[in-house]
Design goal:
The chain is built from 8 helices and 15 strands. By secondary structure, the protein is α+β, with helices and mostly antiparallel strands. Helix 2 packs antiparallel against helix 6, helix 6 runs antiparallel to helix 7 and helix 7 runs antiparallel to helix 8. The structure holds adenosine-5'-diphosphate and magnesium ion. Magnesium ion (MG) binds next to helix 7.
């Protein structure tokens, strides 16, 4: 009897597994194109899961957006040089982790880069290079050491007036992680949260294969140069091929060196692999600023973090443990 029960149970389970399918939805969130993929038994179930992920991402955007005047982040920025602002623990912790990444990258990654957003604009509205003075003045407001945190009271204070924080280089990764965690907690067996190239995956495809990610070559966008399996992990690609400005033949990327106030040059694409998309996101931006040699050196010192760098001259470099299989 027991045996029969066992057999019918496994039969039912395998029927269920057979019925599982991959469902996808593409939509605009956080000003970017998101693609949410889940494994579910049917479309209605998949839609329910995807709706939950969307609600979670919208919630995060409301907390961290520096464009939305009603966000706690905007409240922090408005009070720069004035007073400490009490924030949700979630935002406090995100800022704390961002500062830790600043410390391990010698300030190449810095959420207080945002005061430089006032002079460098990558939305097509810029038609001349900012002046030396403007650049100097904006850089003077940057410095993660002037983001003062009070753990006990959960407050954030930007010490100098004119300072500003922004999560452009970490927010999408964070949202991808949180949406994944939520769906995992709801029992979704597998999926991918792809926030325009910042992605985190879990589980496997219904047929048992790993999720594969294709990395595109920025020099030839229609062609993937690597196809890699992703096991329970994240990969984030930062590229300058979507957002950049060109002055006197020099291409300036939307990633700015907090020390000089000038956009990073030389690298056109960085992909970072890590357990969390948040860390991968922040590190991809950091490698852009640090440059190929220092960047690779840093990545090689971090456990379970790998990266692939493409330079403007087409050179491709990888960290120690990475293997590229051409598709
Ligand atoms: P993408 O937006 O293409 O995914 P990134 O994750 O690299 O690219 O984030 C780039 C964004 O990060 C910029 O548009 C800007 O908002 C912000 N940023 C620019 N320079 C820095 C920096 N040095 N440290 C932290 N954030 C930065
Ligand atoms: Mg980034």
């Amino acid at each position: 009897m027991k045996k029969l029960l066992f057999f019918s149970l496994t039969f039912l389970l395998s029927l269920n597994a057979l019925a599982e399918d991959i469902y996808k939805r593409t939509l605009k969130l956080m000003g970017s194109r998101f693609e949410i993929t889940v494994i579910a038994g049917n479309k209605a179930e998949a839609d329910e899961y995807i709706d939950l992920a969307v609600i979670e991402i919208v919630r995060i955007e409301k907390l961290i957006s520096s464009w939305d005047p009603n966000s706690q982040t905007s409240e922090i920025n408005r009070n720069a040089g004035l007073k400490a602002v009490t924030v949700d623990r979630e935002l406090f912790n995100l800022i704390q982790r961002a500062i830790k990444i600043s410390e391990i990258t010698d300030g190449a990654f810095d959420i207080s880069y945002a005061s430089m957003d006032r002079i460098w604009k990558f939305d097509g509205s810029m038609n001349e290079m900012p002046s030396e003075e403007e650049i100097k003045a904006s850089v003077a407001k940057v410095g993660f050491k002037n983001i003062l945190l009070d753990e006990k009271n959960s407050t954030v204070f930007l010490k100098n007036s004119g300072m500003k924080i922004g999560f452009g280089a970490i927010g999408k990764g964070y949202a991808a992680d949180k949406a994944k965690d939520l769906l995992l907690s709801k029992g979704v067996p597998g999926g991918i949260i792809n926030a325009s190239g910042d992605m985190n995956t879990w589980g496997k495809q219904p047929d048992g294969r790993e999720w594969m990610v294709a990395l595109t070559n920025p020099l030839n966008k229609d062609q993937a140069f690597a196809l890699l399996p992703l096991r329970e992990g994240a990969v984030v690609t930062s590229g300058d091929y979507e957002k950049f400005v060109k002055f006197n033949g020099v291409r300036y990327s939307h990633i700015i060196n907090p020390k000089t106030g000038y956009p990073a040059t030389g690298i056109i694409s960085v992909s970072v692999f890590a357990h969390k998309a948040e860390l991968a996101d922040a590190l991809a931006t950091s490698v852009f600023v640090l440059g190929k040699d220092v960047g690779l050196n840093r990545i090689d010192q971090l456990p379970q973090v790998e990266c692939i760098i493409i330079e403007a001259n087409g050179n491709i470099s990888t960290s120690k443990n990475i293997k590229i299989n051409s598709p």
